[in-house]
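Go through this fold for my students:
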Amino acid sequence: MKRFVQTLLLATFVTMSPLAVTDALAAPAPYGPQMLQVGSTGADVTKLQQDLRLLGFFSYPENTGYYGEITATAVKKFQAANGLEQNGKVGATTGPLIEAKAAKLRPATPKVVDTAMKYVGVPYQWAGNTPSGFDCSGYVTYVLAQYGVQAPRIAADMYAGGSATAAPEPGDLVFFSTYGPGATHVGIYIGNGQFVSATSSDGVKVDSLNGGYWGARYLGARSYI
């Protein structure tokens, strides 16, 4: 009887189709140590949303960092388009495929963008200018300093300097008028209508430059590199 059970288990394992190993059973790879699903939050979700946006499955105006039903629906559409189980979860089956396909569509970006993206998820800290906590201008000056660029510490002063550009390129600084007149918030443009900045509500995160809260408050761009 014992040998029969062992044989049956082996036969079942061998005859399983590849799709039988689903995200519900596998560990995730490119989007952090935990499976992403409804209720997940954080920088890994933001990265996932951006990759889904590049692939044409996520059209919400902003990358929110919250894995809700909209993100789950986008994941299911991706899974359906690629012959995967449509469970709306991102683990070791779905995650690497999303990342690999998105990587082929990402334009080449300046090193400053790669550096800026390393700090996504760092918490906000008023007057902060280190990876333990940033405010908006502290974050930008910290990133630029790694390339020998000494930018002014205040967003308004940054906006008065640099080289004006009508359409921002990856690595340019983008400015916004939030709580008062003039430039009161600054971020780094990363391409595809997106920028990264230190926000008081969510720390360093990626947002959309087009439409929504930030689009309505956009002032312009300056080049420092």
Observations:
- The longest strand covers residues 185-191.
